[in-house]
Amino acid sequence: MSTHDVAQQPARVDPSSWMQAVQGAWQAGGLRATGPRLRVLQTISRYRVPFSAEDLYAALKARRDDRTGRATVYRTLEQLHSAGWLARIHQQGSEAGYVPSFPGHLHHLVCTSCGVVIAFEGCALDELVARLAAQTSFAIESHLLQLYGRCAMCRDC
Ligand SMILES: [Zn+2]
Ligand SMILES: [Zn+2]
Asked: How far is the CA of 81 from the centre of ligand 1 (A)?
């Protein structure tokens, strides 16, 4: 799935397409897909809801054969986040978590009941940003937009 596919239809990021895309980007960027890095990717791809760095580290530790260090987990997460492969999801009453995402201008719908996250492209904030910049003389460089509610599965419960 490319960013383009997300634009056509707001959707949950497909874990296997995501893993493939990340590995392709690593290869293109000369970043070696070491065993620990791949285990981090695999573990991320199993989450159905936002996870924290400590969640991920604990999940890796739970596998007795795994010796992925905390520093590798944090560094890999930081790399994925800064390259746009992970989005930070802000949730009321709990720490921010990560979900797989794609580089580009994406935003997210978050279900406050089950935690499912849907990515979408296009947020139509340009007019508001231009008006605020004019009114406040801010050089506005970025923005956050996350929408909260109940997903199609949860809304009728
Ligand atoms: Zn839900
Ligand atoms: Zn936006």
From this structure: 24
